[in-house]
Design a protein that fits this description.
The complex is a heterodimer of chains A (193) and B (345). With 193 residues, chain A is of the alpha+beta class. Helix content of chain A is 39%, strand content 14%. Chain A folds into two domains: 81 residues, Beta-grasp domain (Ubiquitin-like (UB roll), Roll), CATH 3.10.20; 70 residues, DNA polymerase, domain 1 (Orthogonal Bundle). A five-stranded mixed sheet of chain A has the order 2-1-5-3-4, sandwiched between helices. In chain A, strand 3 and strand 4 form a beta hairpin. In chain A, helix 3 packs antiparallel against helix 6 and helix 4 packs across helix 6. In chain B, a hairpin with a 2-residue loop joins strand 10 and strand 11. Chain B contains 13 helices and twelve strands. The longest helix of chain B is centred in the C-terminal third of the chain and has 18 residues. The chains are: A alpha+beta (193), B alpha+beta (345).
């Protein structure tokens, strides 16, 4: 039997979540869960996905735990690191601070949906590889989606502008110079695309 | 996060009714409005805000996000996203302090999410408020005290504080609004009303858990900034611990009306420094009619900080604030405006 790193991590996270649930349930002032689940329709990477979710489920948790799209990463889970960045209706947002029920019917693009259907990488993905724009890779899906939006917004003209408009994506490996280089490489290919 | 019921009313009237027990920004309010979610969801995860009902304003947002400018002034729909206003060409040209205050706030992702109305209502970043394991926080738990008075208070307020709370108002955009004499327009159960933006946030006044003068169920629908051609000469200078994506430790919003080197009129606001969005009117009066130079700017900055009270780790703030004001004034003076004139020197 083999156990993958993801299974170990997943089990650990589930155990932690269970602990938090028990702690919350032990408090006398917690209201009864009258909400039940809510029907939510998400369009993820071009596919319609119908889910029944607790109102508390964020887009990040819906993607990772309900749709098993684990490319979007949970870094801080409080809107400070950018690892969970996805595109909703074409705009980069933090999926950890967005309730799934609040974006029912909207179009979401995650790192899994960025490449062409024939498998050809998006110019930004290719540029991160070409320029070595990562080390451990944990922040990379968020970096790449944020970078795609940064270019489309027209905020990638100069190195300084790229750094300013990418400041919402932290990289604790410190790959920033190569991330800037990757965005400059992809910018020119995206312009012609 | 604790369980809550979720609803998404289709219009303002129903939203207001749903929020009838929303309180005036109290943390113990059983009903919370959801706009961009960047403060609310964060604080619900931290168990600071514990609503049993969340009323999503997404259903009313579409009609309330227009940005219009005419001879009377600038009108910003409260559900416009921070990013949309920061990028708006008229705002950038005619009200640069507004565009800059938004541009320099948060991150690109957060600016895409956060609405203007939600932004001005964002909660303090005080660590003792945000960590519910601390017993003493008058904002979270009325009457429990203030752990920050003798705690780590490096980025706590020095203006508008009292013994009940030294939490700092963290926003930037609100500083620009208070500086330009903006009005806020709200809709509630009893119709619409307008109030001066400077009266939206309440002083701590021993009751810091009540943060605003919004009545229960009232929803901010727009901000109105009166027109003045000289607002083109305005700037937001923000000093932070890192170059981007960080709250201010000091900021100054300045708008300057110059007649040669003489100050015909001036507006000065302060961020990263006060309990609520702060206007330095006495400092403005000090400058009016005088030549704008470093000495006079320094004298005005000293007036702005006269009432400052620090608590140890934030003893550095008055000096930093004074220098930030001087820098903003001289920066505004040096701005080239649309007529090509540059009054520096």
């Amino acid at each position: 039997m083999t156990i993958t790193r993801r299974e170990v991590l997943g089990g650990g996270a589930a155990a932690m979540a269970l602990g938090a649930e028990l702690a919350a349930a032990a408090r006398a002032d917690v209201p009864a869960d009258t909400a039940g689940t809510i029907a939510v329709r998400l369009h993820v990477n071009g596919k319609r996905r119908d889910l029944n979710l607790d109102a508390r489920v964020t887009v990040l948790d819906a993607l990772r735990d309900h749709l098993h799209l684990t490319g979007s990463k949970k870094g801080c889970d409080q809107g400070q690191c950018g690892a969970c960045t996805v595109l909703i209706d074409g705009r980069r947002v933090l999926s950890c601070l967005t309730l799934a029920v609040s974006v029912s019917g909207r179009k979401i693009v995650t790192i899994e949906g960025l490449a062409a259907s024939n498998g050809q990488l998006h110019p930004m993905q290719q540029a991160f590889i070409d320029q070595d724009g990562f080390q451990c890779g944990y922040c990379t899906p968020g970096q790449i989606l944020s970078a795609v939006a940064c270019v489309k917004e027209g905020h990638a003209d100069t190195d300084d502008e790229i750094r300013e408009f990418m400041s919402g994506n932290l990289c604790r490996c410190g790959a920033y110079p190569k991330i800037v280089a990757a965005i400059k490489q992809a910018r020119d290919h995206m312009d012609s695309a | 996060m604790r369980p809550f019921s979720y609803e998404r009313p289709p219009d303002l009237a129903q939203a207001s009714r749903a929020g009838a027990s929303s309180g005036q920004g109290q943390v113990d309010s059983p009903v919370q409005f959801l706009a961009g979610g960047t403060t609310l969801i964060d604080l619900m995860k931290l168990d600071v805000l514990r609503p049993s009902r969340v009323v999503d304003l997404g259903g009313v947002a579409d009609t309330l996000r227009s940005i219009t400018a005419d001879s009377r002034g600038l009108r910003l729909g409260a559900f416009a996203k921070m990013a949309a206003v920061a990028d708006h060409p008229v705002v950038r040209l005619s009200y640069p302090v507004v565009a800059q205050s938004l541009q320099l706030a948060a991150s690109a992702q957060l600016r895409n999410m956060a609405t203007l109305g939600g932004n001005v209502l964002q909660r303090t970043r005080c660590s003792y408020y945000r960590d519910s394991s601390w017993a003493a926080c008058n904002k979270r738990q009325p009457g429990s005290g203030c752990a920050a008075l003798r705690g780590f208070n490096r980025n706590h307020a020095i203006l508008g504080v009292d013994k009940s709370c030294i939490a700092q108002y963290p926003g930037d955009f609100a500083v620009a609004l208070v500086t330009l004499d903006a009005e806020v327009e709200v809709a509630g159960a009893h119709g619409r009303r307008r109030l001066p933006f400077e009266t939206l946030h309440r002083p701590a006044d021993g009751r810091p858990h009540i943060e605003t003068n919004l009545n229960s169920g009232e929803i901010i629908i727009a901000f109105n900034i009166p027109a003045a051609s000289w607002y083109r000469r305005s700037v937001y200078v923000k000093v932070r611990d890192r170059a981007s994506y960080e709250f201010a430790i000091a900021s100054a919003a300045v708008a300057l009306d110059l007649d040669g080197d003489r100050v015909r009129d001036v507006r000065i606001g302060l961020g990263g420094m006060a309990y609520r969005p702060w206007r330095a009117k006495e400092a403005e009066d000090t400058l009016k009619g005088k030549a704008l130079n470093e000495a006079n700017a320094t004298a005005a900055a000293a007036v702005a900080l006269r009432g400052a009270t620090s608590h140890g780790h934030n003893d550095y703030k008055p000096q930093l604030a004074r220098q930030t004001i001087v820098r903003a004034l001289l920066h505004a003076q040096a701005m080239p405006t649309s007529d090509g004139a540059n009054h520096a020197g």
